[in-house]
Every structure is written in structure tokens, then in C-alpha cells.
Design a protein that fits this description.
Elements: H1 16-25, H2 38-48, E1 54-58, H3 65-71, E2 76-81, H4 84-93, E3 100-104, E4 120-126, H5 128-132, H6 138-152, E5 153-162, H7 167-174
Parallel strand pairs: 1-2, 1-4, 2-3, 4-5
Length: 188
């Protein structure tokens, strides 16, 4: 397994304190969508995820992708993040949107025992695996996160990974036989 150093710097992207500080610092900047906006991802999301799916958005931050998905007709999206600051922002912003739920996962996406097995039809990851891949324990962190994603997906469920990571670095983590996933790669 590989560590992706191409997009890493000295920040500790796997640390809640880093993200809390960042969201406090950027509090007046509004929401931020890493990598792609929903409008660019919509064809892929709509192709693989039904509107009635129970969706888990890992590492939601303060992005508007979940909001845009609800506007597009999605009915059940669970947003989780390691940052209490981001979750507080999301809870306040979406307190009157019953389709969006926001939960703080303090220990990170590597340990999501809060949710029972096969809880979700799909999991969307827009940069969370990338964050874990920058740490010194990248292969272990990736395996723990992907193991949890696999456990949480219902049979036939969809894990949608939006990443800037090099496919030669990401695919060994995703293509592990234990997950039994059919993988399709799109370059946007």
C-alpha cells in the first residue's frame, strides 16, 4: 500500500484540532466545497445513487453538496465530520431541513461504530480519504476507513470517492478483495 505524498504538506489533515481551527479561521468565508461542486458531480451521483437512498456524507465540512443534493430531490443524507466547529455550523444552517442530519464523529471515519452494519445505501467521500492519505499511518488509516465504509454499506451499496489522488495510489486501497467492490474510475 502507498502513501500519497503528491498533495501533502505539513498540515495534519487527520486531526480534529486542525479542522476546528481552520473552520474558526474561515468562519466568515462561507461554505467551501473541496474539489468539485455538485453541478459537476451530479451526472455521476444521479447515475449511481437513487433519490431515495440513505446517503452518508463522510467529512462533510461546511460544503453545500448535501444541500444541493436535497434541492435535487435526495431525501436522506447523513453528514458527519471530525470537526465540532463544522458540525455546529451545519446543524445551525440546516436545522429546518429534515432531509439533512449532521452528526459529530469525534474519533473520525476510521471508527464509525455509532452506526450499525449495513446502515447506508451509499457513502460519498469528497476528499476525506485524501486527508487520511497524507498522514504517516496512511495505509492503516485508509484500511480502517474503507473497512468501516464497507461495513456500513448495504449489499450492492455505492461508495463514491471524489479524489485528487493518483489512481495508482488509490486503487490498491479500494480494490482489496475483502470489500468485493466493483470499481469504475472516471477522470473529470
Amino acid at each position: 500500500m502507498f502513501r500519497d505524498v503528491s498533495a501533502c504538506n505539513t498540515y495534519n489533515y487527520g486531526d480534529a484540532l486542525y479542522w476546528d481551527a481552520r473552520y474558526i479561521q474561515d468562519a466568515n468565508s462561507g461554505s467551501f466545497d473541496w474539489y468539485q461542486r455538485y453541478s459537476a458531480l451530479r451526472p455521476f451521483v444521479r447515475k449511481y445513487i437513487s433519490l431515495t437512498s440513505r446517503v452518508l456524507m463522510v467529512g462533510c465540512g461546511n460544503a453545500v453538496i448535501s444541500e444541493d443534493m436535497v434541492k435535487d430531490g435526495f431525501e436522506d443524507i447523513m453528514n458527519i465530520d471530525i470537526s465540532s466547529v463544522a458540525i455546529d455550523m451545519m446543524r445551525k444552517k440546516y436545522e429546518n431541513v429534515p432531509q439533512l442530519k449532521c452528526i459529530l464523529i469525534r474519533i473520525c471515519v476510521r471508527y464509525m461504530s455509532f452506526f450499525p452494519d449495513e446502515s447506508f445505501d451509499s457513502v460519498i467521500d469528497k476528499g476525506t480519504l485524501d486527508s487520511l492519505m497524507c498522514g504517516t499511518s496512511a495505509p492503516i488509516n485508509a484500511a480502517q476507513m474503507l473497512g468501516e465504509v464497507s461495513r456500513l454499506l448495504k449489499p450492492g451499496g455505492v461508495y463514491m470517492l471524489i479524489t485528487y489522488g493518483d489512481p495508482t495510489v488509490r486503487m490498491p486501497h479500494i480494490n482489496r478483495p475483502v470489500y468485493n467492490w466493483k470499481v469504475e474510475l472516471y477522470v473529470i
